[in-house]
Amino acid sequence: MKVSVLIPTYNRRDYVVAAIESVLAQDFADHEVIVVDDGSTDDTSDLLQPYAGSVRIIRTANQGPALARNVGMQAARGDYIAYLDSDDLYYPFKLGLQAALLDALPHVGMVYTEFSGFSDDGVWDECHLRRYHESAYERGGLEYQQIFTECWPLNDVFAAARLEGLEKWSDRAVYVGNIYDQYLFNTVVFTNSMMFRRSLLARTGLQRKRFGMFHDLEFALRLCRDAPTAFIDVPTYKLRYHEGQISTTRRPAGGKVAIRIQRDLLRVARHHLLRDRDYYASNRRRVDSQIARLCRAAAVPLMSYDAGTDHENRWYPVRARRYLERSRAHGEGHALLYALTFAPHIVRRVAFKLLDAGRGRAKALSK
């Protein structure tokens, strides 16, 4: 078996069948599909039943996506492992393209790709990576040549037959390099599109639930640390936007999601940047700047969130102050923000609106 495709799912009855079908429609046959039903309470189980002959279905108690993926990885038999969220889709050439690259470059441990973003109400962005990780690419100004050390045209890496149907992307390239250090400071990898060697798990280990919404990023960091990484600048994955996404902040509980996002991202950064004392000693200024920035980013949604009760509205600013104190300990003080943590919620809201308006005017003047 060449590739194992893992599809964790939880109450995705409206999408999971399309996800499975996009794998079964691949132009590459040497693969298995493992669906981990993570304790769904809707009729997902019934919808999966017709695929029992062609797909391996594993049912577990609800544990969350990190542990569901771990169950799938432990069951995988393929040389390579790929992920697919059950509300997303593959392009038909995805598995063949990535497997061919790993076959051609045995020193590469993981390959990820460009991807498309879409929604059922008509949103479509064919090459979505730069916008999705805009903090690194659009705002940060990173180019692929800065991240990777090697670059080849697609035609130099793949056989002509493998590139049939990809003519519209014929001017794209493959990039290879050791990107762990760059990845520590910039979110550059779209983890859903990864394919990696199953043999790496022996030293990399499985995903870790304690990193919350960024368990996949932390896992990808370990993959990049342990072997060179490749990037194919061709979209192979389709990311679906919808209101039921776990990471969306556009719903009633969106404020708490925003808090978890920043908290978990900081947790990953602290784990990788501060645990290695030699690395910290050699890169102290850069590391301190990154941790200070992320501490501030963790404080802001705590200050913005209206918890609804006086007790909670007092508690969230207290937590924000702790993050701002950590930011100051790493060299960046934020006196105005710190003072605002003592103000009533309505005052904080007005202050943030004024600050946002000021940044907007400054951005407009700089263009």
Describe the protein's architecture and organization.
Helix 1 links the parallel strand 1 and strand 2. 45% of the residues lie in helices and 17% in strands. Strands 1, 2, 3, 4, 5, 6, 7, 8, 9, 10 and 11 form an 11-stranded mixed sheet that branches. It folds into 2 domains: 239 residues, Alpha-Beta Complex (Spore Coat Polysaccharide Biosynthesis Protein SpsA, Chain A), CATH 3.90.550; 113 residues, no CATH class. The chain is an alpha/beta fold and 367 residues long. It has 16 helices and 11 strands.
Largest sheet: 11 strands, mixed
Determine the CATH topology of the largest domain.
Spore Coat Polysaccharide Biosynthesis Protein SpsA, Chain A
Helical/strand content category: alpha/beta
CATH superfamily of the largest domain: Spore Coat Polysaccharide Biosynthesis Protein SpsA, Chain A
The first-level CATH class name of the largest domain: Alpha Beta
Q: Which architecture name of the largest domain does CATH use?
A: Alpha-Beta Complex
Helix content: 40-55%
Structure summary, number of beta strands: 11
**Quaternary structure type:** single chain
Strand content bin: 15-25%
- H and E string: EHEHEHEEHEEHHEHEHEHHEHHHHHH
Uncertain segments are: none
Distance between the amino and carboxyl termini: 53 Å
The residue-averaged pLDDT reads 93
Total of domains: 2
- Total DSSP helices: 16
Shape: globular
